[in-house]
Every structure is written in structure tokens, then in C-alpha cells.
């Protein structure tokens, strides 16, 4: 069997990537270990073609179109289609997998099965962010869904919520959690720094980072030594201005002296993500919306106390006050109170972290999730 993932986010040294990149890398490496051939095709960050073999995975990074603007997508997809055809001719592909919009302009080849994994598409996030559907992106997503032979939902929530806006067209829909490498994300011997709050993820509005910053002074009143460490790549507005810069200019000055204890660390290489969690007293991810999210179960696998959003798939991920804490991401007091609870209940928080790791091993454990994916690739999408 030969699986081909279509993504621009596969981790590349020196360049930021998101959760989809982390997911594909984790799954691809394990599939390869199981003897399944894996290729990854995506548009490069640069105007060069690159081929890399890493961990047994063949990664094809195609040079981005030099033509900017409205028609760049056409030339990018043309290059991807050409590469799929070339690879398939020399080494037949069994399955092509991508995210929601990824099949819109892919030319289907007989004998290849095409799968969309629901990581959270345009319709899904437009609704939760209270913004209008972009007609062009909405068109692509609907076109892509019609081409898919099957779907994989990473949470029950993303399956049901996506179905409110888009049709699965009678095709199979499987529910398979994200895989978490619990040997890579495991309790660390590193000394925990007391009262250190850690956030990891893209630094943008929907991740709830602005509310976390606004809640921080409430925590500081009770715990003056608390610090907030923010790890993750920047997000940019349509006018190319930086979200982090906006926070520094508009939000931090309102905090006065408290702002000195908020630190932005920037994008983190995949191999260093556990180090970002290691010193945390509590990991906080007050997202406005997630399809599932990797950061909460990753931190839980490390035995950390985690505060996650109560919205969307939050209750699927955490049982409140048993495997972690759930917060209202729009309520500053609630965010602060959950952090303060962790600081005030060290023994209970430590026990909660142990239970959380056991839960993650059972629900998101790598071997079990990889087996489910292989079964679906082989049988479930027919």
C-alpha cells in the first residue's frame, strides 16, 4: 500500500508549521514503520523544487508559482497534479489524503482512493468566528467534498458540525482520533518552574490567546510570581500586519507592570515541543473553537495539568476536574480561576496529570490509532 498526503505544512527545518503538519508527520512515520510506503506532496516555502527523504518518507516540495494573485492557485495545483501522476506511474498510489479544500482542483486517477480528513475547513471556522463565507473558498470546499471517496473525522464534534454546512454525499465517514506519540510526549524529569503558565499554538484570535493575556493580571493578583510563556508561530491579518505585534501594541500596555512577565518565544521546532511543555505548572489552551487540537492531549500525555476550552470538542478531550479543566474561553474570570485552582491544589493537580496521561494512552495512543487508520485505508473507504 502507498499513501500520498497532500499538505504544505509537513515540518521543514527553519520554517513554521501547524497542527496538520505535526499530525501528518506522526502518522506518516508510523505507517512507514509498519511497512507502508508514504509520500508527501506540497508547495514549498521557496521558489525551488526539493525532494527530501526523512524517516523513510519521501517529501516532494514543489516550487510555488511565481505568478502572484488570482491565478497562482491554478499553477500550484497543476504542479501537484503532475507530481501525483508521475509518482503513480512509477509506484502506484493506493490512497491520496488531504484536508477539506485539498481536492478541489485535483484530477482524479482511476484506482486511487481519495480521502478528506476533517481538520476544520472554511465553513467550519467561518461559523465559529462569526464571519461570512468567502465565496471562492466555499466553492472550493464544496467541489473538494464532491470528489472525496471517504472522510475521516478527528472528533465527533467536527463530524456533526461540518455536516451542518456541507454534504458528505453519501460517502463513508469514519471517526478516528489524532494519534499522540506518548513516548515522545511523556513526563519529563525536568524541574517544573513554579507558577509558569504555558500556551502553545498559532498565536491568533481563535486560539483564545488575547483572552488568556487579559486574564493573566487576575492570576497575578493572587500569585505575583506567575509568568505566561507563549510558544507558537505568528498569524497575519489580510493587510499582512502581525497579530503578535498587535497584542504588544494594544493589549500589553494596558496591563502595566504585569506585561513584563509575558514572553513570546515564537515558532517551535517539532522536536522541541515537549521542551516547551516540560517546565509548565499548567498548560492553557482557551480556544474559541477546535476540531480536536493536538496541544491539549500532547500536554496531557506529559502528565501536565491542562486547561482547555469547554466549547467544541473540549468535553470529548477532557473530563472536567478529572483529566484536566475546561474553561469558558470568553470569560476572563473563568480562565483565571482554573489556572488559580491548579496553583492552589498541587497534589490534586499532579494526580490529575497522571490520570490524564493514562486517558491519552487509551484514547489517542499511537499504535491503536495507526491500526485504525490502516484498517480504514485498506477496507473502510470501499
Short descriptors:
globular, 382 residues, 17% strand, 6-stranded parallel β-sheet, 14 strands, alpha/beta, 8-stranded mixed β-sheet
Q: Whole-number radius of gyration?
A: 21 Å
Helices and strands, in order, run as EHEEEHEEHHEHEEHEHEHEHEHEHHH
Structural class: alpha/beta
Spatial shape: globular
Q: How many angstroms separate the termini?
A: 15 Å
Helical fraction equals 25-40%
Notes on the structure:
With 382 residues, the chain is an alpha/beta fold. Helix content is 39%, strand content 17%. It is built from 13 helices and 14 strands. The chain has helices at 19-33, 72-90, 122-128, 135-147, 156-162, 209-222, 243-251, 273-278, 295-301, 314-317, 332-344, 346-364, 366-380; strands spanning 2-6, 37-43, 50-54, 57-62, 95-98, 113-118, 150-153, 173-175, 196-200, 227-231, 262-266, 282-285, 306-309, 325-327. The protein has an 8-stranded mixed beta sheet with strand order 3-4-2-1-5-6-7-8, sandwiched between helices. The protein has a 6-stranded parallel beta sheet with strand order 11-10-9-12-13-14, sandwiched between helices. Strand 1 (2-6), helix 1 (19-33) and strand 2 form a beta-alpha-beta unit. Helix 6 (209-222) packs across helix 11 and helix 9 (295-301) crosses helix 12 (346-364). The longest helix is centred in the N-terminal third of the chain and has 19 residues, at 72-90. The radius of gyration is 21 Å and the shape is globular. The mean pLDDT is 92.
Amino acid at each position: 500500500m502507498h499513501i500520498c498526503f497532500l499538505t504544505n505544512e509537513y515540518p521543514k527545518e527553519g520554517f513554521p508549521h501547524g497542527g496538520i503538519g505535526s499530525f501528518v508527520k506522526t502518522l506518516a512515520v508510523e505507517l512507514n514503520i509498519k511497512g507502508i510506503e508514504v509520500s508527501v506532496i506540497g508547495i514549498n516555502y521557496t521558489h525551488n523544487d526539493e525532494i527530501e527523504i526523512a524517516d523513510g518518507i519521501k517529501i516532494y516540495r514543489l516550487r510555488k508559482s511565481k505568478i502572484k494573485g488570482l491565478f497562482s492557485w491554478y499553477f500550484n495545483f497543476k504542479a501537484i497534479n503532475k507530481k501525483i501522476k508521475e509518482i503513480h506511474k512509477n509506484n502506484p498510489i493506493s490512497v491520496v489524503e488531504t484536508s477539506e479544500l485539498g481536492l478541489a482542483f485535483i484530477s482524479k486517477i482511476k484506482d486511487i482512493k481519495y480521502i478528506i480528513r476533517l481538520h476544520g475547513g472554511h465553513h467550519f471556522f467561518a461559523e465559529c468566528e462569526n464571519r461570512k463565507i468567502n465565496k471562492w473558498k466555499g466553492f472550493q470546499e464544496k467541489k473538494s467534498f464532491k470528489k472525496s471517496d471517504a472522510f475521516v473525522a478527528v472528533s465527533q464534534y467536527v463530524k456533526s458540525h461540518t455536516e451542518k454546512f456541507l454534504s458528505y454525499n453519501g460517502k463513508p465517514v469514519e471517526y478516528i482520533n489524532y494519534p499522540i506519540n506518548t513516548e515522545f510526549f511523556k513526563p519529563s524529569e525536568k524541574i517544573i518552574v513554579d507558577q509558569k503558565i504555558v500556551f502553545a499554538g498559532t498565536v491568533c484570535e481563535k486560539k483564545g490567546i488575547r483572552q488568556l493575556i487579559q486574564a493573566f493580571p487576575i492570576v497575578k493578583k493572587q500569585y505575583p510570581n506567575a509568568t505566561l510563556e507563549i510558544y507558537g508561530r505568528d498569524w497575519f491579518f489580510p493587510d499582512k500586519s502581525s497579530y503578535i505585534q498587535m497584542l504588544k501594541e494594544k493589549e500589553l500596555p494596558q496591563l502595566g507592570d504585569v506585561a513584563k512577565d509575558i514572553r513570546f518565544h515564537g515558532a517551535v521546532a517539532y522536536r522541541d515541543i515537549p521542551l516547551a511543555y516540560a517546565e509548565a505548572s499548567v498548560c492553557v489552551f482557551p480556544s474559541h473553537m477546535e476540531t480536536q487540537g493536538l496541544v491539549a492531549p500532547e500536554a496531557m500525555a506529559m502528565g501536565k495539568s491542562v486547561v482547555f476550552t469547554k466549547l467544541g470538542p473540549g468535553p470529548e478531550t477532557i473530563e472536567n476536574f478529572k483529566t484536566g479543566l475546561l474553561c469558558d474561553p470568553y470569560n476572563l474570570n473563568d480562565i483565571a480561576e482554573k489556572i488559580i485552582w491548579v496553583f492552589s491544589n498541587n497534589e490534586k493537580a499532579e494526580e490529575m496529570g497522571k490520570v490524564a496521561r493514562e486517558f491519552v494512552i487509551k484514547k489517542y495512543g499511537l499504535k491503536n490509532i495507526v491500526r485504525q487508520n490502516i484498517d480504514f485505508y485498506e477496507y473502510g473507504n470501499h
